[in-house]
Write a structure and sequence with these properties.
alpha/beta, seven-stranded mixed sheet, 7 helices, 34% helix, globular, binds adenosine-5'-triphosphate, binds magnesium ion
Amino acid sequence: MKIAVAGKGGVGKTTVSGVLARSMARQGSKVLAIDADPAMNLWLSLGLPKDALTNIIPLSENDDLIEERTGVRPGSIGGVFSLTPKVNDLAERYGIRGPEGVMLLVLGTVKSAGGGCMCPANALLKALLRHLLLDRRDVVVLDMEAGLEHLGRGVVKGVDTLLAVVEPSYRAIETAARVKKLAQDLGVKRIYAVGNRI
Ligand SMILES: Nc1ncnc2c1ncn2[C@@H]1O[C@H](COP(=O)(O)OP(=O)(O)OP(=O)(O)O)[C@@H](O)[C@H]1O
Ligand SMILES: [Mg+2]
C-alpha cells in the first residue's frame, strides 16, 4: 500500500501519518514513512528521540549524494545531469529506524518532484519518489506538505490511497474536497477523509 496523507495546514496530517505508520508496523508490515514536508517534523510523530534529529540530513541537501547520483553538484553552473539516477538503495542507506521498526526517510524541499524546476536535487527526489511509490512492495506512508501543491505536481500519481485529513471547520472540509477532486483526476483509486479533532 502506498498511502499519501494530505489536507489543509495544521489539520493533523503528520499526526495521522505517524500513528498510521506505527500501528501498521506493529501489526507486522514493513513500513517506510516519507517526510515530504519541508518543515520536516514527522520524526516527532514517529516517536524518534530528539537526538535522532542530528542524524537527519534531508536528501535534497545532501550535495555529495546528489553529485554522486546525478553527476552534477548542486549550485554548479552548467553540466548535464542524469534524470534517471540510481535510487533503489537510498531508503535503506539514508533511512532512520524508529520505534516499531518504522523506517523514516526525510526528503527536504521537494519543490517540483512532479515536474517543473530542472535541477539535480529535484531529479534525484523525483526518481526516488517514483521508485518508492511504484516499485516497493511494502507499506509507504507519505506525509505531505499542506495544501494542494504536491497534488498539482503529480507526486501523488504513484499512490494507491489518499487520506484527506479534515477537522470540523469549513476551510478544512473545502480543502479536502479539492484534494479529492485533484486526486481523482490523477487516478488515485481510493480516497478517504479522516476526521480529526471531532
Ligand atoms: N486529535 C488531536 N488531538 C490533539 N492534538 C492534536 C490532534 N491532532 C493533531 N494535534 C496537534 O495539532 C498540531 C498540528 O498537528 P499536525 O502537525 O499533525 O498537523 P499537520 O496537518 O501535519 O500540520 P502542517 O500543515 O503544519 O504540516 C500538533 O501540535 C498536533 O500535536
Ligand atoms: Mg505536518
